[in-house]
Amino acid sequence: MSARVKVGCVRNGELVEVVSVEPSDARPCRLTVFRGGDGGHGVVYSGDNLFACLLALRRDLERDGLLLCCQGARRDVTSSGMQAQMAGGRYVYKFDRASRTVNEETVDILAPAGPEDVVSVEEQRAAIFDFYGIRDQSR
Questions:
Q1: Which of 55, 46, 45, 48 has its CA nearest to residue 77?
Q2: For FRET with 26, which of 13, 62, 88, 98 sits at 20 to 30 Å CA-CA?
Q3: Are 131 and 86 in contact (CB under 8 A)?
Q4: Which residue has the higher pLDDT, 25 or 9?
Q5: Which of 77, 31, 79 minimizes the C-alpha distance to 54?
Q6: How far apart are the first and last CA of the chain?
Q7: Closest alpha carbon to 72 in 110, 102, 35, 26
């Protein structure tokens, strides 16, 4: 396992909790998450890549009304299949909606982000679909 990373969780823009997230550095991909009330036993999120694991974690936190303050929860990030295979989903690309360009530099999905920059999984999904000009047919 890689080193644990502390990530803030916000509700209505206010920090209400800090979780510890420990990503795997080998396949199968896993994020082990430690919250204050779990008695030291982490919850494991497994997936094809770490970004997929992060999405599952974020959905669980959203059920508690929380947004995770990390780069992987920004409205303006997207993963690519090739990047997910090469780096296990640990890094994603930022995009600029105005110029409709993808920045070639990547950001660590667990690096800190400000409360004003993070959105729900559904808001992020909608922004990605909009950026690529794709109609979301799941709705």
A1: 55
A2: 62
A3: no
A4: 9
A5: 31
A6: 37
A7: 110
* 44/29 Cα distance (integer angstroms): 10
Supply angle C-alpha 94, 91, 81, rounded to 5.
90
* Nearest alpha-carbon partner for 16 in 72, 69, 73, 74: 69
Q: Give the DSSP letter string of the chain.
A: -PPPEEEEEEETTEEEEEEEEEE-SSSSEEEEEE-GGGTTPPEEEEESSHHHHHHHHHHHHHHTT-EE-BGGGBTTEE--HHHHHHHTTSEEEEEETTTTEEEEEEEETTSB--GGGB--HHHHHHHHHHHHT---TT-
From 88, 76, 3, select the one nearest 48 (Cα to Cα). Answer: 88
Residue where the block lists tokens 């969780």:
9
How high is the pLDDT of residue 38? 65
- pLDDT tens-digit readout, 25-63: 888 899 999 998 666 789 999 999 999 999 999 999 999
